[in-house]
Amino acid sequence: MAVVAAATVAAVLVLDKNDGEDDTSSGKKPAASSPAPSSSKPSEDPADGGRGDDNPRSGGEDIKPVIPGWKTVVSSKRHNAFDVPGNWVVESSGLSVGFEDDKGKPLVIMSAPGIYKKDYCSVKREGGYENKSDAAAAGSKGAQGAKSEASAARIEAGNWAFAAFDQEKTGHLKVGQSKKFTSDHGLKGYTASATVTGVKKTDKCSTDGKAVTVSYTDTNGDFATWVLYSVKGTKNEVPDTTIKKIMSTLRPLKSESGF
Fold it and tell me: Within a domain: residue 133?
């Protein structure tokens, strides 16, 4: 697996099951396994809400965080905003990140990311290439072509858990049911989660992982999906309580300048 930081492309759909079922993905192995792209330097717990290093996009330009001490991530393309703890890195809204297979084919991509423990783990690959991983990241992507918000949420949760943590298919991928979701700040849609456990530890960065999504109808009438993935079962895992707190801050963005 390789981490992508490039222009947005369409994701490959790993799952295509009926909504509301728990199952394991089956499909062909596209790549080697390694954890997710990672974030900044801080050693604080991701749930502590500490301010961490200052970031030029903290507060999302003139869009302020709804949780004191946190930073706002703004996706002008997908018309949403959300907050992350102060020790996360907020990248440019024009940056896209994701994962590609061992042939260089992008599997999943999202833009305007917030990242936890950026580049916290790195492994030298064949040819001298250094594959760097983040502990967690959250961002947004399009979901055009999806059958529904519920379907988009579930498919993307499975896609991200698979692509970020177990492309070799050595572990067990479980994708949960899609459920209705309403944030504390007016964003409505469906949410789903996926976990991959029992991943074979082929290098120091290999780890189990998880992904959570929220799919909604964008202001332009298209489906869109918010994604958060994290390592699982290590000290760098973003706790579920913190993920729920981040999700609670999701809000629709009406324009470049406000809500």
Answer: yes
